[in-house]
Automatic annotation (TrEMBL):
Protein name: Bifunctional ligase/repressor BirA
Residues engaged in binding biotin: 89-91, 113, 184
Class of this enzyme: ligase
EC number: 6.3.4.15
Superkingdom classification of source: Bacteria
Entry's Gene Ontology molecular function annotations: ATP binding; biotin--[biotin carboxyl-carrier protein] ligase activity; DNA binding; transferase activity
GO BP: protein lipoylation; regulation of DNA-templated transcription
UniProt lineage: Bacteria, Bacillati, Bacillota, Clostridia, Lachnospirales
Residue ranges of DNA binding: 18-37
GO CC aspect terms: cytoplasm
Signal peptide: none
Keywords from the UniProt entry: ATP-binding, Biotin, DNA-binding, Ligase, Nucleotide-binding, Repressor, Transcription, Transcription regulation
Coiled-coil zones: none
InterPro entries: aa-tRNA-synth_II/BPL/LPL (IPR045864), Bifunct_BirA (IPR030855), Biotin_CoA_COase_ligase (IPR004408), BPL_C (IPR003142), BPL_LPL_catalytic (IPR004143), HTH_11 (IPR013196), Transcriptional_repressor_C (IPR008988), WH-like_DNA-bd_sf (IPR036388)
Length: 326
């Protein structure tokens, strides 16, 4: 009931009478009053006026299930939320829940991670109250070979959500880092559980630097936050909800073809690598070229100095002027 009351108040521009809440929810005035008081205790500023009702004036920057669900406008993505104060990592929890049979679209969110990680096992800084640490469970009916493309789908959804809510010109560094002003604000880590010919589940972990004000010396020229770049506070629950909306839309389009053919043009428009000099670093080789976009399978197309076109499947990609690469 708390989620429903919070949703009603969040979507109202004025006061909502106690009687309206009672009729919509089928509960007593006492029950409504108790929920309102609990919300106030959690930091929600709610004005109560006799004969007028209740009005939500402000809300705390929390990532509880109630806060997220009250802003969510999806059919299934993020509709079941497990929220925590602290976890090892949301991907770890998501895999446990997926093994237990939780449905597609289930969302795991934590206020803090103590063992957060990024690609290639790198540590992801996850301080309390200043970032988004979330993982969504997906169960696409397709062959495991197509799973890696979902990382790009998630990056596109997150990039659009950030742009919508902050007004910043967010871009994607292939394949899945979201950057603002050439510094990283978000990353994605996708993990797969599969058999030879089918997928059990995929967990898509997303980390966003929302309100961090400072970074370690070694990261200051590589990382930033939405607060530092926009100069304003961004509600984490709102950003989570908006990301789920975009993800549901792009995921459905991806499932039609099991590739990025329907999303390639949209992705290319926000690809910071496009038509830029990139340095490709692999275990066996390194070379420079110009990025020309992505294939239907999400591979980066690079034009080498001799004008040969190659597809980059994996490895590190550096862009001149980005992440201190010069």
């Amino acid at each position: 009931m708390k989620t429903k009351i919070l949703t009603i108040l969040s979507n109202s521009d004025g006061y909502v009478s106690g009687q309206q809440l009672c009729e919509q929810l089928g509960v007593s005035r006492t029950a409504v009053w108790k929920v309102i008081n609990r919300l106030k205790e959690e930091g929600y500023l709610i004005d109560s006026v006799s004969n007028k009702g209740y009005r939500l004036l402000s809300q705390p920057d929390v990532v509880t299930s109630e806060a997220i669900l009250s802003k969510l406008q999806t059919n299934y993505m993020g509709r079941q939320v497990f929220s925590y104060d602290e976890v090892t990592s949301t991907n770890t929890v998501a895999k446990q829940l997926a093994d237990e049979g939780k449905e597609e679209g289930t969302l795991i969110v934590s206020d803090k991670q103590i063992q957060g990680k990024g690609r290639r096992g790198r540590y992801w800084e996850s301080p309390k109250g200043s970032g988004i640490f979330m993982t969504v469970i997906l169960k696409p009916k397709m062959k495991p070979v197509y799973a890696s493309m979902l990382t790009l789908v998630a990056a596109l959804a997150l990039n659009d959500a950030i742009t919508d809510l902050t007004g910043l010109e967010a871009k994607i560094k292939w394949p899945n880092d979201v950057v603002v002003n050439k510094k990283k604000v978000a990353g994605i880590l996708t993990e797969l559980s599969a058999e030879v010919d089918y997928i059990n589940y995929i967990v898509v972990g997303i980390g966003v630097n929302v309100s961090m004000k400072d970074f370690p010396e070694e990261l200051k020229d590589k990382a930033t936050s939405l607060l530092l770049e926009s100069g304003k506070s961004i509600g984490r629950a709102q950003l989570i909800a908006k990301t789920m909306e975009y993800l549901e839309c792009y995921y459905e389009r991806f499932l039609k073809t099991h590739d990025l053919s329907e999303l390639k043009e949209t992705y290319s428009k926000v690809l910071i690598n496009k038509d830029q000099v990139v340095r490709i670093l692999t275990e066996d080789d390194s070379y420079t070229g110009v990025a020309r976009g992505i294939t239907d399978e999400g591979h980066l197309i690079v034009e080498k100095d001799n004008h040969d076109l190659v597809e980059v499947y994996s490895g590190e990609v550096s862009v001149r002027g980005l992440y201190s690469y010069t």
